[in-house]
Amino acid sequence: MSEAIEVYEVEGRTFAPSAAFVAQANTADRSFYEEADADYEAFWARQARELLTWDKDFTQTLDWQLPFAKWFNDGQLNVTANCLDRHVAAGKGDKIAYMWEGEPGDSKTMTYAELLTEVSKFANVLKGLGLQKGDIVAIYMPMILELPIAMLACARIGVAHSVIFGGFSADAIIDRCDDAEAKLVITADGGYRKGSAAALKPTVDEALKRGAPSVQNVIVANRCDLNPDMQAGRDHWWHELMAEASADCPAEPMDAEQLLYLLYTSGTTSKPKGIMHTSGGYLTQTAFTHKYVFDIKPDTDIYWCAADIGWVTGHSYIVYAPLANCVTSVMYEGTPDTPHKARLWEIVEKYKVTQLYTAPTAIRMFMKWGTQEPQKHDLSSLRVLGTVGEPINPEAWMWYHEHIGGTERPIVDTWWQTETGGHMITPLPGVTTTKPGSACHAIPGVFAELVDDEGKPVEAGGGYLTITRPWPSMLRGIWGDEQRYKDTYWSRFEGRYFAGDGAKLDEDGYLWLLGRVDDVMNISGHRISTTEVESALVDHPAVAEAAVVGATDELTGQAIIGYVILRGTHEASKELGDEIREHVGVKLGKIARPKAVIIVPDLPKTRSGKIMRRLLRDVADGRELGDTTTLADPSVVAEIAAGAASGDED
Ligand code: PRX
After folding, report:
1. 64 in helix, strand or coil?
2. C-alpha span between 306 and 313 (Å, rounded)
3. Which of 204, 288, 251, 310 is nearest to 526 (CA)?
4. Strand-pair partners of 71
5. Contact 67, 486 (CB under 8 A)
6. From atom 26 of ligand 1, which residue's Cα is the shortest distance away?
7. What is the pLDDT at residue 293?
8. What sign does the CA torsion over 82, 84, 85, 88 have?
9. Whole-angstrom Cα distance, residue 319 to residue 582?
10. Pocket of ligand 1, candidates 388, 413, 416: which has the most ligand atoms within 8 Å of its Cβ, to mutate?
11. Which is nearest to 256 in space by CA: 76, 508, 520?
């Protein structure tokens, strides 16, 4: 077993679904697993036909030319017709699609019929600006309803969207627009965050001043009345374009493999990868998992995924799957602590939320704030609790179970990735006996296996997580870089998809995810590459060399610690450390700003010149130093450790 994977003792407690839950569950026995194990293609074909409406039925379920998959390839459908038109046609037009809650407390609802009108109008706006099937549009927006409207309008006419998280920087916008040759940016003046209006449009302006020449137009939604600069001929107000737009935009049938979106995610190099997702398979698996993992009852449930649409969780489980399943969702603009620490629980009570989907980092924060916050509100409407983004520690699981779930609600710990598009490993709430901290088992129709360094399957114990067969919502590639797609996911273990995670299989066959085994950090459930942060650090004029590690952090799972060597005459000081830290925040966005920048005289390197990040991680975590015998100069680590111990950090 690789030393990169630390295996810890697993939890012994088990929690079976209650008889009451089982009695009403969408699926309550092992029949899905049995059906999928017997013939997984037939299983997915059945789901595709049952959950979605096809303009043209498919004749072939899977075309698998390792590592390239096509699902339902000769079938045709329109994703937005599945999310909107068919529900309206079935008489559900007045059903609420989104109950939107702004951070300052303003709120809005939008029905399926209204959403269809807005999406059709905005699709015509896009057409009016010359966009056509196959084009790519960047979206940089806060959590307002215009965001799903923009995404769906793109999907309606076969334009792929590339959503850029609103916390990212101008550089991130430039990189992503350049890579995809995006023709248009859709943004807003700003959005409310932590009690004030945070501007977004100036970041787009800065990006377009410095780069992204492919962008011809910018559409700006007005959320905060910030009155941004508008460049004549390039910038257009959302409301002005919409006032002129026709609501007549029939949904055209698209090929099942039509590109739906790109979503950039960090890898082990400094260049983010444009993960490609297509239409039919993606919608099948996201709709399936949404319905069965959250036990969705569309007529009565009020579902809330408290993520940001800027990440894959929001794409799949705020936009596409909930709409495909015709459920009513809550969408929240702001942060959980504004204006007070019971904000989430207030929203649960206000809307009588039935499913809550959040991240372990948020749960750990709620634990810190104390049980008095959730106790202020009636949480009895909740039926299923979900988590995603990082391993959940058993204490956080138990807290969620006891203080939010009242010891009765099933918890679904869902393991998946930007690349997988939808849930892969998770309990089914009416079927699985859960163990706190374990994501339990691969869903029906997904085949996960742990392997050792040589790629041999591991029966029990630690290993690398691989997926052995294609799945409908899998990435179809990395935009513009086929070789990188093959190298990143399909070359480490022959014939297998390598997820980049380590995991443990216990004697009962339960999977325990243990975190990344590559140079990707997980900060509050968000992926950040060490190389990307290192590049941003050395971009500062005072920095000669940098090494970044993810140190263990009680709240955020991991925290970014940067070790830097200064150039020539620069002198170490707290101010300089702060300045370097801020520099990364400006280059990459606040979420990638290191928690600490430690100025060091040298970095530990092997004799071949490779930085030994493992040792730096040990120092950051205050652990006993591991083996330093391969170091070129073993005294370097001792020196850094002494510096760290004496508080020589920012
Ligand atoms: O390390 C795993 C962790 O998050 C990574 C995927 O990150 P991203 O593509 O940003 O998608 C996050 C939301 C789907 C994985 O490689 N991860 C995600 N969910 C879990 C998890 N680790 C443990 N348990 C989970 N439930």
Report:
1. strand
2. 9
3. 310
4. 62
5. yes
6. 415
7. 98
8. positive
9. 33
10. 416
11. 76
Within a 10 A sphere around the Cβ of 133, how many other Cβ atoms?
Answer: 12
Contacts of 636 (CB under 8 A, 6+ apart): 601, 602, 603, 604, 605
What backbone phi and psi angles, to 5 degrees, belong to 288? -60, -50
To test ligand 1's pocket by mutation, which of 289, 290, 417, 511 has the most ligand atoms within 8 angstroms of CB? Answer: 417
Quote the pLDDT of residue 284. 99
How many angstroms separate the CA atoms of 374 and 346, rounded?
Answer: 8
Q: Using alpha carbons, list the distances in angstroms from residue 158 to 127, 181, 251, 276, 478.
A: 11, 16, 10, 14, 19
Ligand 1: centre distance to CA 547 (Å)? 23
Burial 637-650 (b: 16+ CB within 10 A, else e): beebbebbeeeebb
pLDDT of residue 10: 61
Per DSSP, helices labelled H in 234-359 are 238-244, 280-293, 312-314, 321-324, 343-351
- The phi-psi region of residue 118 (left if phi > 0; otherwise alpha if psi is between -120 and 50; otherwise beta) is alpha
Residue 233: how many other CB atoms lie within 10 Å: 8
Q: What is the pLDDT of residue 2?
A: 43
Peptide bond into 339 cis (omega under 30): yes
Distance 388 CA to ligand 1 centre (A): 7
Residue to probe by mutation, ligand 1, list 390, 504, 556, most atoms within 8 Å of CB: 390
* Residues 595, 428 contacting (CB under 8 angstroms): no
As given in the structure block, the two tokens for residue 542 are 């005072």
H-run or E-run covering 526:
strand 526-529
pLDDT for the residue 365:
94
The atom number, within ligand 1, closest to the CA of 418 reads 9
**Residues whose beta carbon lies within 6 Å of some atom of ligand 1:** 265, 312-313, 388-391, 413-418, 439, 499-501, 513, 515-516, 522, 526-527
Q: What is the pLDDT of residue 644?
A: 63
- pLDDT value of residue 648: 38
Which residues of the chain carry a pLDDT beneath 50? 1-4, 647-650
Residue type at 20?
Answer: A
Query: Model's pTM, two decimal places?
Result: 0.92
Supply the pLDDT for residue 649: 35
**pLDDT given for residue 647 in this prediction:** 42
Contact 217, 236 (CB under 8 A): yes
Q: Encoding tokens for residue 485?
A: 């797609």
Q: Which amino acid is at 161?
A: H
Cis peptide upstream of residue 604 (ω within 30 degrees of 0) = no
Give me Rg for the CA atoms of the chain: 24
Return d(Cα 316, Cα 300) in angstroms, integer: 21
Q: Give the residue whose CA is nearest to atom 23 of ligand 1.
A: 391
Residue 405 CA to residue 257 CA, distance in Å, equals 40
Distance 387 CA to ligand 1 centre (A): 10
The residue nearest atom 13 of ligand 1, judged by CA position, is 389
> Which atom of ligand 1 is closest in space to residue 419's alpha carbon?
9
- CA–centroid distance for 125 within its chain: 28
Per DSSP bridges, beta strands 384-388 and 355-358 are: parallel
Q: Per DSSP, which regions of 156-301 are E strands?
A: 160-163, 184-188, 190-193, 196-199, 217-221, 235-237, 254-255, 259-265, 273-278
Q: Report the separation in Å between the CA atom of 206 and the middle of ligand 1, taken as the mean of its atom positions.
A: 32
